[in-house]
User: What shape does this take?
Amino acid sequence: MKEVKELLKLAADSMKNETLYQLLENDMEYQKRIKEEKKALEAVNGLKLSEEQRDIVETLIARKDETQYEFNINAYMAGLLDGYKILKTFNLTKE
Assistant: This one.
């Protein structure tokens, strides 16, 4: 079952990319946040952190990115499932 879920996640990820990126390109609020994120990362990179501190910050950023990736894939799959449920509710699935 875990393998099936992973395959579904991969499929959902590839399906969402084109649509999502088109939406994000035109979302001015998102574009603003991306610029703010880059500026904050540049500020962190400019700090004189010890190697241990830098490792902790980089680990935190990596785990946050990984968590966000997993959340996004699951949210996309939830949207697909909800869309299907809506279609089925109104007998539009041709089943």
